[in-house]
LacI family DNA-binding transcriptional regulator (Arthrobacter humicola), 340 residues
Amino acid sequence: MSTHPDQAERPATIHDIAALCGVAASTVSRALSTPERVNVRTRARIEEAAAMLNYTPNSQAKALSSGRTGAVGVLVPDITNPFYFDLIRGTQLQLKAAGYTQLLVDTEESDEVEASAMEQLRKGADGIIVAASRLRDEVLLAAAAKIPVVAVNRDVPGVPAVIIDTPSATSQALDHLISLGHTRVAYVAGPVSSQSSERRWTALSVAAEVRGVEAHRLGPFAPTTQSGAAAADAAVHSRVSACIAFNDLIAIGMLQRLRERGIRVPEDMSIVGCDDIFGADFCNPPLTTMASPIEQAGRVAVSMLLARLNPLAGGARRSRSVMPTHLTVRGSTGPAPQDR
C-alpha cells in the first residue's frame, strides 16, 4: 500500500481508505462502525489502511451514522453555587471513565433556559442529567420522552432520579434543636419551583406536629448568600429561636446579617444549613448543616443514565436511587435562650 499524495495536507477520510483498499466508502464505514458486518479479511485491510493514514473518525459523521454523539449534557441551576461543584466533579469523572464528554450548562435558575437547553441538547447529546430541575412535572416528563434523562433531586414519576434524602436530615435537625430546648423553629424556604424545598418543609412540619413544637415557614428566598439578609430579618421578626435554612448559602448570609444586627449565634439564635458546602466549617461560628454524598450522587446519576444508553452492557437499570444524609453539628446551634 502507498499513501495518498494529499495525505500530508489534510486529514484522511473514509474515501482515502476506500481508494487505498479498492472498496466502496460504505464498506469502509461499516468496517469501522459495525465491524461484525464486514468480511474478516476485508476488515483487516481497511483497519491496516486506516492506521497507515492516521485516520481519526469525525465525531459528527460518527454521530450521524450511529445516532450517538459520545456526549452527555449536565444541567445545573447555578454553576456558582458550591453545592454543584461536587456533583459536577462526580458526573465528570464517571463520564470520562466511560468515554463520554460532559457538556455543562448553567440554567440560571430559569425554567425557560432549562427547557431551551434540553431541546438543543437533543441534537448534540446522547442523554441529559438535570440537577434540581425547575421545570413543571409534565414538561420534564415530556422532555424525558424525547431523550434519556436522569434527574437529581427531582422526583417525577416516569423520570429516573437520584434523590438526596434531605427530608430525613431535616427531621434530625429538628430533633437536635428540640434537644437544645428550642420550641419555636422556622424553616427558611428556597425557591417556589424547588421540589426539594417543599419536601423538607413537609417533613419538618409533620415532625414538629408529632413532637409538639411550633414550626413556621419563612420565604421563599433565592438560594444565595445575598438573600440571607432578608431571611435573617424575617427570622428575628417572627421571634423564633432557631432556623433551618434551605441551603448553606442562605444560612451563611443569615450569619452575616445577624452579626451586623448584634444578634449572637448561637446564644440568641441557632442556625442550621443544608448541603455542607466547602467553607461551611470556616464560618463564624462554623455552620451546623445537613451533609450528603453529593459527588456520589453525580456518579450514580451517570451510572443510571449509561445503563439506559447501553442496555447490552449489563448494568443494573434503576429508576430511583436514594442517597442518605446526616446532620453535622458545629458551632451555629446551641441551647435556646431562656427568655423566649
Summary: Residues 71-164+294-323 form a domain with the Rossmann fold fold (CATH 3.40.50.2300).
